[in-house]
Write a structure and sequence with these properties.
By secondary structure, the protein is of the alpha+beta class. The protein contains 8 helices and 20 strands. Strand 7, helix 5 and strand 8 form a beta-alpha-beta unit. The two termini are 34 Å apart.
Length: 351
């Protein structure tokens, strides 16, 4: 596959503070890659380095095989959709979408045609004469996407594009962005701190923590095979518990978790003490208490319509459980026993 973006040992420092440290990664042409991580991890700085809005302290950046390390933002073939949309309030929707094209050598007629085409792509045909203030948040977001798309950039950049939208609209707009990206085979770099959003839209995810890459891979790889405790906890709220690998048998390890013995992929970890990530959905609660299971007390129960969230105290420590079995509900203070479902447990290589 052709590489659209490449970072080679990129560091960005502000005085003594290094916002990103020694980043090396590649992004394939036509793929959507998400930079995911908590606030202050370096993901927005990385996006701004691709855009040319920040200049690297050390290292090299390539876009479409061409080195752009020292080029200004205007000399790079990228377009950015900002968190705030950054639409001009006094211009109509069509004028906003046309804005970048008016700097080109196109005729006025060509610019109008291209802008109308952009609005059609994002489902806003007929809205060209309106002002941004006459549109909903979701429609404004689509105008910002259309404005970036009409420039036909080598790389399209999104900086937390859905954070100003309500939950229901966020889901719809992220689906629209993903559909458009796939239909047009756009190379897209997408920044978010929302792990569900990242899992939903990405071909690959680069998880960042404290200015470095914690792990990169497909959504499936990161969820099923986290490389370390940080990734395990950040993607999918894992419960982290201590366990013991009793023996290795082929690709599997026989593991003792609080007295329950299970077989899990050993992931190259030798026999002995090990950390296990247990997804909240992987814990099954039962009554009456069974002596072959792990006993626990419910500290907190929160009803959320289609599921209940429980906080438990057990021999394994405090556990967070998401239970979709709505016909069986437990009150705070109840004693239950717990077992583990077949999926949702993984041994963590790096502690």
């Amino acid at each position: 596959m052709e590489t659209a973006v490449e970072f080679k040992h990129v560091t960005k420092a502000y005085g003594d503070v290094r916002a990103v440290r020694g980043l090396s990664f590649t992004i394939e042409r036509g793929k959507l890659v998400t930079l995911l991580g908590p606030s202050g991890c370096g993901k927005t700085t990385t996006l701004r380095l691709i855009a040319g809005l920040e200049m690297v302290t050390e290292g090299s950046i390539f876009i479409g095989g061409r080195e752009v390390t020292r080029l200004s933002a205007s000399d790079r073939d990228v377009s950015m959709v900002f968190q705030s949309y950054a639409l001009f309030p006094h211009m109509t929707v069509l004028q906003n979408v046309s804005y970048g094209l008016t700097m080109s050598k196109m005729s006025k007629v060509e610019v109008s045609e291209k802008a109308a085409e952009g609005l059609s792509l994002v489902g806003l045909t007929g809205y060209g004469g309106r002002l941004p203030s006459e549109l909903s948040g979701g429609q404004q977001q689509r105008v910002a996407v259309a404005r970036a798309l009409v420039l036909e950039p080598e790389v399209l950049l999104f900086d937390e594009p859905l954070s100003n939208l309500d939950a229901k609209l966020r889901r719809r707009v992220r689906e629209e962005i993903r559909e458009l990206q796939q239909k047009l085979s756009l190379t897209t770099v997408y920044v978010t701190h929302d792990q569900e959003e990242a899992l939903a839209v990405s071909d690959r995810i680069i998880v960042m923590n404290e200015a470095v890459i914690a792990q990169e891979g497909t959504p499936h790889q990161l969820y099923e095979e986290p490389a370390n405790l940080f990734v395990s906890d950040f993607i999918g709220d894992a419960n982290l518990v201590k366990a013991e690998i009793l023996r290795i048998d082929g690709d599997e390890a026989e593991v003792n978790i609080g007295g329950i013995q299970l077989k899990l992929p050993h992931r190259g970890i030798p026999a002995g003490e090990v950390d296990v990530g247990i997804r909240p959905q992987a814990i099954s609660l039962n009554t009456p208490v069974n002596k072959d299971e792990i006993s626990a007390t419910i500290i907190k129960a929160s009803y959320l319509g289609d599921h209940i969230e429980y906080t438990l105290e057990s021999a394994l420590g405090e556990l967070f459980v998401i239970d979709n079995q709505m016909e069986k509900q437990f009150d705070s203070g109840s004693t239950v026993s717990l077992t583990f479902r077949a999926r949702g447990l993984s041994l963590i290589p790096e502690s």
